[in-house]
C-alpha cells in the first residue's frame, strides 16, 4: 500500500545503502540553545522571551538556509562509526537528567515533563516540515530505506538528549553504515526500557534525513508509529545480528510479567503479558491461563493509564460462570470487574463502569469496595444530568487539580454554523448566571515548574514558535491518545487550522499493533483549541485561580484541551464566560440564552482599539463579525478614536508624575475633556446599544477620583463605566432593570454596581438587598462573581 499523501522529505528515488541517500530537502533540527543566564538572574518577562524566541528563530533559519544551499543535491558520504560517535559524545556529556517518559499513576504531570538545565533559557527544537505518518505496514515495505521502504537498524551507543523533545542515538545498518538518528520523544515512550538501549534493534519505516545546523544530516523519526522495536531473535533481523534466544513458554512470560508488576515496572509487565498471549494458541488464550494473563495485563495497563486496553483485557479475563460455579471463579471475576469498572470510570464511560460494579455487587452484595465504587459511579451519572455545584459547602478551593466529577454537557451540542465552521448551541434556554457546561480536560498541563526556562518548538515553515506549556501539552495529548486510541475520533474531529482539512475517517488506524497518530495535526489542534488559564487571578471571574501563574502569558501558564468546549466560537459580544476549577472548565451564561442560540465566548480580552483586537483574533485565522466589530469597521471616527486612546494611554502612564506635580482636579478635568472627545467617536447611529470600550478606563479613574468628595459626579462616572460595557441600566422609581443584550461582563462592572449602591446608601437611599447581595453577600472577595 502506498502512502496517501507522499511525505515531502523523502527522496524520490530510493537507492541501496543508507550511506548513499542524498540531501535534497531542508529539514532541520537545531542544536539546543547555549544562551546561558546565571541562575540568580531576574525573571524574564513574557515580552523578553518572545523577543528571544524570534531572534533565535531568525538566526536558525538563516543558518539553515545557507547550509541547505551548500548541501543541495550532494551525494551523501557515509560517516565512519568513530565520526558518528564523536558527534554524539558532547550530547551525552551535556545530557540533563532524562525525564521518566511514561507517567506513573498519581504522578503529577510536571514530574514527567523534561527537567531542564536551569542555566539555559531555552531548549529549542526545530521540527521537520509537517508530514503525514507512514501508512504502510511492515509487511508492505521493502527492507532498505526511503519512500516505500524501511531500514533495520541496531543502536551502537547509549541515547542522549538531542533537544527538549528529541532523543538521539548512533545506529548502524547491516552494511555497516553509521548515522545519527534523532527520535521525537513521543516515539520512545512506549518502548519497554523507556529509552533506547545500546544494542537494541528496530525498524524505521520510510526513513528520511534532515539537515541540522551543527552536524550535517541526521536520520529522523517524528511520528511514533514509524519506529518498531524488534526482539533479538526476530526473523526480520539480518542473520549476523540475530541472537540465539530460547523462546519462553506462555507461563514463563506470565511469570516474568508478574515479577515486573511486583517490581513496579508496569511497562515491562505489559510487554511480558503481551508476549505470553502472543505465544498461546487461540484456545489457550481463552482458557484459565489466558484469563489470568488478560486480567494481569489489565492491571499493568491501569498503572499505565491505558484505559482502553485495560477495559478490554479485564472483560476478556472474565470467566464464564454458566459453566463454572466455584468461589475461586467468582473471586477472579470480581478482580476483572473491578479493573473494567476502574478503566471505564477513568474514560468517563460511567454506564459501563456502573454495569461492572453492579455485577460485582451481584457476586458479593456486601463487598464494601464494590458498594463504594457503585455509589461513586451513580453520583457521576447523576452529575451528567444535573451538573455539579462546585461551590457547595467546601467551595472551589477544595477541588484538587484532578477534579473527580462528571462532565455536564447535556445543555449544549455542536452543530454546523453558516460561516464559522462548527459551533456550540444551547439545546434548552439557559438563564443568566447559570452553568452552561462543565468539562474535564482531555489533557491539562500546569505552568512549568521552572518558569524561567522554556521549550521552544519551531516548525521551519511557520512564522510562529511554540513555547512554554504548549510544548508540554503536545506531549501530554499525544501520550493520552497513544494510550487510548478510542479518544481519537473526538480529538481528530477538532478544528486543526487551514492547512488541515477535515479527515474522512476520524478513527485512529492501527498498523503493526501501534496507533498511527499524525503529531503535526495534533500540534495544530492544540494551537487552535486549547484554553490558557487566566494569568491575572484578579480577572478570573469565578473558580480557583490557583493554577494561574501571575505574570505569565497563556502559553507559559497552565493550559488544557477540552473536547466539547472546543466547539465554542468567539464573539466580542459573547454570552458565555469561562473559568477553571482544577482540570475542569466551567462556562456560565453572562445573559439569558435562548434555546438554539449559539454559545460564544472571548478568545482574547477585548481591546478598545479595533486594529489591535482584530490582529489578535487573526492569529486564530478569522476576523470577528459581531455587531461591535462591524460598527468599528464602518464607523469613520475609529481612526480618530485610536489616536485619542493612545493619548489617554500616555497620560495614564504619566499619572504618578502628574499627580505629584499638578493639582489632582486638573488631571480629572483633563480626563473629562478626553472622555468627551472619545465619546464623540461613538456616533449613536453606529453604536446604539453597543459597548463603548474606549470610555471605560478614564471613567473608572474619574469615578474613583470623585468618590471622596463628589458623590453625584462619582455616580455619573460609575454609571458611565457600566454603560460603556454595553449594559443599559433603567431606573424607574424603585425598580432597576439591567439590559444585558450586548453587554460584556467584567469585574469592573460589579465594582461599579457596588459603588452605585454605596453612593445611594450614603445619600440615604437604602437599597433592599436582592439578587447578587442576598446570594453572595457584600464581601469584597465576592466581587469576583460577575454582573
Ligand atoms: C476552537 S475552534 C472553534 C470551533 C470551530 N469553529 C470548529 O469548526 O470546530 C476555533 C476556530 O473557529 C473559528 N472561529 C471561531 N470564532 C469565529 C468567528 N467569530 N468567526 C469566524 N471563525 C471563527 C476559527 O477558525 C478559529 O480558529
TrEMBL record:
InterPro entries: Gramillin-biosynth_MTr, SET_dom, SET_dom_sf, TPR-like_helical_dom_sf, TPR_rpt. Residues 410-604 form the SET domain. Keywords: Coiled coil, TPR repeat. TPR repeats lie at residues 334-367. It comes from the Eukaryota. CDD domains: SET_SMYD (cd20071). Residues 50-77 form a coiled coil. The keyword Coiled coil applies. This is SET domain-containing protein. It comes from Aureobasidium uvarum.
Amino acid at each position: 500500500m502506498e502512502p496517501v499523501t507522499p511525505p515531502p522529505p523523502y527522496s524520490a528515488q530510493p537507492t541501496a545503502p543508507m550511506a548513499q541517500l542524498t540531501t535534497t530537502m531542508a529539514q532541520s533540527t537545531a542544536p539546543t540553545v547555549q544562551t546561558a543566564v546565571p541562575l540568580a538572574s531576574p525573571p524574564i518577562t513574557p515580552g523578553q522571551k518572545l523577543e528571544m524566541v524570534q531572534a533565535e528563530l531568525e538566526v536558525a533559519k538563516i543558518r539553515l538556509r545557507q547550509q541547505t544551499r551548500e548541501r543541495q543535491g550532494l551525494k551523501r558520504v557515509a560517516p565512519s562509526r568513530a565520526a558518528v560517535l564523536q558527534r554524539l559524545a558532547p550530547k551525552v556529556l551535556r545530557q540533563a537528567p532524562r525525564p521518566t517518559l511514561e507517567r506513573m499513576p498519581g504522578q503529577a504531570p510536571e514530574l514527567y515533563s523534561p527537567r531542564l538545565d536551569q542555566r539555559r533559557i531555552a531548549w529549542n527544537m526545530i521540527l521537520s516540515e509537517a508530514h503525514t505518518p507512514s501508512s504502510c505496514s511492515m509487511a508492505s515495505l521493502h527492507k532498505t530505506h526511503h519512500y516505500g521502504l524501511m531500514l533495520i537498524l541496531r543502536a551502537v551507543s547509549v541515547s542522549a538528549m538531542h533537544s527538549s523533545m528529541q532523543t538521539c542515538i548512533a545506529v548502524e545498518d547491516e552494511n555497516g553504515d553509521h548515522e545519527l538518528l534523532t527520535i521525537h520523544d513521543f516515539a520512545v515512550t512506549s518502548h519497554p526500557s523507556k529509552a533506547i538501549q545500546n544494542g537494541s534493534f528496530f525498524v524505521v519505516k520510510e526513513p528520511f534525513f534532515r539537515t541540522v545546523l551543527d552536524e550535517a544530516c541526521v536520520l529522523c523519526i517524528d511520528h511514533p508509529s514509524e519506529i518498531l522495536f524488534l526482539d533479538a531473535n526476530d526473523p526480520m533481523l539480518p542473520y549476523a545480528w540475530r541472537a540465539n534466544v530460547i523462546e519462553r513458554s506462555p507461563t514463563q512470560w506470565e511469570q516474568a510479567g508478574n515479577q515486573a508488576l511486583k517490581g513496579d515496572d508496569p511497562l515491562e509487565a505489559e510487554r511480558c503479558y503481551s508476549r505470553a498471549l502472543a505465544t498461546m494458541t487461540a484456545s489457550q488464550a481463552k482458557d484459565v491461563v489466558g484469563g489470568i494473563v488478560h486480567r494481569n495485563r489489565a492491571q499493568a495497563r491501569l498503572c499505565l493509564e491505558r484505559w482502553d486496553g485495560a477495559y478490554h483485557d479485564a472483560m476478556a479475563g472474565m470467566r464464564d460462570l454458566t459453566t463454572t460455579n466455584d468461589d475461586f471463579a467468582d473471586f477472579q471475576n470480581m478482580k476483572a470487574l473491578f479493573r473494567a469498572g476502574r478503566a471505564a470510570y477513568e474514560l468517563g464511560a460511567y454506564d459501563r463502569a456502573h454495569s461492572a460494579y453492579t455485577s460485582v455487587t451481584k457476586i458479593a452484595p456486601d463487598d464494601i469496595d464494590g458498594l463504594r465504587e457503585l455509589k461513586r459511579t451513580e453520583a457521576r451519572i447523576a452529575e451528567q444530568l444535573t451538573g455539579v455545584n462546585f461551590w457547595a459547602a467546601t467551595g472551589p478551593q477544595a477541588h484538587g487539580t484532578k477534579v473527580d466529577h462528571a462532565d455536564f454537557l447535556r445543555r449544549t451540542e455542536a452543530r454546523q454554523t453558516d460561516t464559522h465552521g462548527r459551533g456550540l448551541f444551547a439545546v434548552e434556554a439557559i438563564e443568566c448566571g447559570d452553568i452552561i457546561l462543565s468539562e474535564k480536560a482531555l489533557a491539562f498541563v500546569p505552568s512549568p515548574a521552572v518558569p524561567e526556562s522554556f521549550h521552544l518548538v519551531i516548525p521551519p515553515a511557520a512564522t510562529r514558535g511554540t513555547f512554554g506549556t504548549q510544548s508540554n501539552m503536545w506531549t501530554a495529548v499525544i501520550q493520552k491518545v497513544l494510550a487510548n486510541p478510542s479518544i481519537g475520533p473526538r480529538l481528530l474531529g477538532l478544528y486543526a487550522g487551514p492547512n488541515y482539512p477535515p479527515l474522512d475517517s476520524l478513527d485512529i488506524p492501527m498498523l503493526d499493533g501501534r496507533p498511527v497518530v499524525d503529531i503535526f495535526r495534533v500540534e495544530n489542534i492544540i494551537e487552535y483549541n486549547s484554553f490558557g488559564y487566566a494569568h491575572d487571578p484578579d480577572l478570573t471571574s469565578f473558580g480557583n485561580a490557583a493554577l494561574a501563574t501571575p505574570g505569565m502569558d497563556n502559553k507559559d501558564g497552565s493550559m488544557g484541551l477540552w473536547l466539547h468546549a472546543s466547539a465554542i466560537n468567539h464573539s466580542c459580544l459573547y454570552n458565555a464566560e469561562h473559568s477553571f476549577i482544577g482540570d475542569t472548565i466551567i462556562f456560565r451564561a453572562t445573559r439569558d440564552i435562548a434555546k438554539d442560540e449559539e454559545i460564544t465566548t472571548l478568545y482574547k480580552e477585548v481591546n478598545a482599539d479595533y486594529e489591535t483586537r482584530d490582529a489578535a483574533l487573526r492569529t486564530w485565522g478569522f476576523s470577528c463579525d459581531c455587531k461591535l466589530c462591524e460598527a468599528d469597521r464602518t464607523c469613520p471616527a475609529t481612526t480618530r478614536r485610536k489616536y485619542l486612546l493612545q493619548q489617554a494611554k500616555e497620560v495614564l502612564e504619566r499619572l504618578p508624575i502628574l499627580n505629584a506635580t499638578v493639582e489632582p482636579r486638573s488631571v480629572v478635568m483633563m480626563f473629562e475633556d478626553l472622555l468627551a472627545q472619545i465619546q464623540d467617536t461613538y456616533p449613536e447611529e453606529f453604536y446604539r446599544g453597543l459597548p463603548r470600550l474606549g470610555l471605560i478606563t478614564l471613567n473608572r479613574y474619574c469615578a474613583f477620583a470623585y468618590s471622596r468628595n463628589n458623590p453625584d459626579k462619582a455616580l455619573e462616572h460609575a454609571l458611565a463605566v457600566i454603560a460603556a460595557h454595553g449594559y443599559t441600566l433603567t431606573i424607574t422609581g424603585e425598580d432597576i432593570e439591567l439590559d444585558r443584550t450586548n453587554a460584556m461582563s467584567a469585574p469592573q462592572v460589579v465594582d461599579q454596581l457596588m459603588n452605585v449602591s454605596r453612593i445611594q446608601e450614603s445619600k440615604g437611599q437604602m437599597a433592599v438587598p436582592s439578587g447578587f447581595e442576598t446570594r453572595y453577600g457584600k464581601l469584597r472577595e465576592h466581587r469576583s462573581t460577575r454582573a
